[in-house]
Amino acid sequence: TWKRNDGAVNLTITGCTGSNPRTLGLEPPTEAQIETMAQVIAALAEGIGIPVDKQHVLTHGEAANNEDGLQIHQPYSWWNDSYGDKDTRGDLEYLGTKESPAYVPTDPQKQSQRGGSVLRSLAQAYQKTGKFHATKLNFGSASFHDNDYNFYYNNIKDNVAKRIATYQRSAK
Fold it and tell me: What is the pTM of this model?
């Protein structure tokens, strides 16, 4: 999002073409995409050494609206088009799941249903358990892929931590 990409790690999923506050478009996010994004958020945050909170992990819509408290630009989310040009961002404001069924950015009683809140909550749960759950990704209950995903998670976490440490040493 404008003026926020320097020093940032950006994750994306494919889909949601034509999305807006009323529909997630032709290809809403799948359960596997949501779970995988939460797992990658958890691993990257641990590797980088940042907490999974709204100050550090935001959806495109949350960043567009300056919801981390940084006033980098005027807000331009779906519900707050301060530029008046209809070029707004709402990516992952809601996920179309039972946890995040609809677009509710300004309802204080439903903030936990926003897409960013759900993704951060899932990522925090993965950090607490340290385990991926391949069965949620449609591998089935008899799958041996849980071990693969735990390896993947730890590999990302360790790789990112090593790269950050190397960068910090070279910057001195």
Answer: 0.75
pLDDT at 134: 46
Q: Please count the CA atoms within 13 angstroms of the CA of 9 that sit on its side-chain side.
A: 16
What is the distance between the alpha carbons of residues 152 and 132, in angstroms, rounded to a whole number?
9
**∠ at Cα 42 (101, 39), nearest 5°?**
60
DSSP 20: B
State phi, psi for 27 to the nearest 5 degrees. -135, 80
Indicate whether 112 pLDDT > 90: yes
% of the chain beyond a pLDDT of 70: 83
Residues 109 and 42: their CA atoms lie apart, in Å, by: 26
Backbone angles phi, psi at 124, to 5 degrees: -65, -40
DSSP 21: T
55-76, pLDDT tens digit by residue? 999 998 888 888 888 888 887 7
| Amino acid occupying residue 8 | A
Alpha carbon distances (Å) from 8 to 25, 56, 57:
27, 9, 10
